[in-house]
Amino acid sequence: MADPALPSVSTRTYLRGFGGYVPERVVANAEVAALVGEEADWILKVSGIRQRRYAADSQTVADLAVLAAEDCLTRCGVGAAELGMIVVASGSAERFCPGPAATVASRLGFAGTFALDVPVASAGSLIALNLAMRFAPSVGKVLVIGAEIMSRRVRLTPEGRDTAILFGDGAGACLVDAGLANLEQGALELVDAALYTDGNAAEILRMEEGLLHMEGGSVILQAARKVPAAIRTLLERNGVLIEQVGTLLMHQANRNLIAKVASTLKLAPERAFLNIERFGNTSSASLLLAAAEWHAATPAPAAPVVFAAFGTGLNWGAILGLPVAQPVTEWSA
Predict the structure, then answer these.
(1) pLDDT, tens digit, 9 for 90 and up, residues 142-157
(2) Cα gap 142→116, rounded to integer Å
(3) Which residue has the higher pLDDT, 80 or 10?
(4) The model's pTM
(5) 3-state SS string over the chain?
(6) Distance (Å, rounded) from C-alpha 231 to C-alpha 264?
(7) 84 and 53 in contact (C-beta within 8 Å)?
């Protein structure tokens, strides 16, 4: 696997904080199982999911994104007018162009702030985070949002069983800034990223005609091999040992897959953060929703953090964060 020659970040960039939003409606396995002709216990066994959230009929991807954005900005003590850029990752937006980024910018009160869409399911927020690392030195504060309503992109029927059991709805957000004069305790310095694409495997995970198509076994095999390789590359070129990693924050695709990635890396399983049991797979929202909960529970991280994801494209990769301790307010659904 060739390592991409990414330009270096000339100014240090930092993750200042996170936010999140999940819809009110809780959908337990029993409800989904009845629709797809399976048993609730089987869903838990193959995915690690007990429940997920579904958006209300009146809610849009942009609605969820705005709520997560407002939560993040409040927790960071930053006004929307201070932002230099907004990046919104979503593979499930109601329309392709313009995507939700323009709507989110308008709803937050911007007239000219650059708003960019990343229309990549599952890996989108990782890609957006890397873009924020690159743009922050020139534009200042960058708000990154992952927002998805995946419940509308699956068939809730026996024919759609393999995707229907996994996906839920939600949004996560984070704030990236550069060259902070007075670093808050608990910020994470974003030091490097390793991102990859394999178009030859794109057909096994794709969004087409409004629905997600997934060859589950092939996706698991690809992700279980490619994600650990990307993490190893990232750590090796930054002189970080796997035993030094405090937390793996991974796209919450499947509990068994996350455990497989940790095992392949020889990372202690408790260091792989999980919230998939309660929220299911929220595609590009999942990485930032997991990060928001982890950050609330770990107010002063003292060890390196690895963000990792894979998704449509196939796109995958990892980002390395180094900690600066701080207390944060609690985030919970």
Answers:
(1) 999 999 999 999 999 9
(2) 11
(3) 80
(4) 0.93
(5) CCCCCCCCCCCCEEEEEEEEECCCEEEEHHHHHHHHCCCHHHHHHHHCCCEEEECCCCCCHHHHHHHHHHHHHHHHCCCHHHEEEEEEECCCCCCCCCCHHHHHHHHCCCCCCEEEEECCCCCHHHHHHHHHHHHHHHHCEEEEEEEEEHHHCCCCCHHHHHHHCCECEEEEEEEEEECCCCCCCCCEEEEEEEEEECHHHHHHEEEECCEEEECHHHHHHHHHHHHHHHHHHHHHHCCCCHHHCCEEEECCCCHHHHHHHHHHHCCCHHHECCCHHHHCECHHHHHHHHHHHHHHHCCCCCCCEEEEEEECCCEEEEEEEEECCCCCCCCCC
(6) 11
(7) no
Cis upstream peptide for 98 (omega within 30°): yes
Contact in structure between 115 and 86 (CB atoms under 8 Å):
yes
One-letter amino acid of 244: Q
Query: Would you say residue 320 has pLDDT above 70?
Result: yes
Residue 27: alpha-carbon gap to chain centroid: 21
Q: How far is it, in rounded angstroms, from Cα 26 to Cα 168?
A: 10
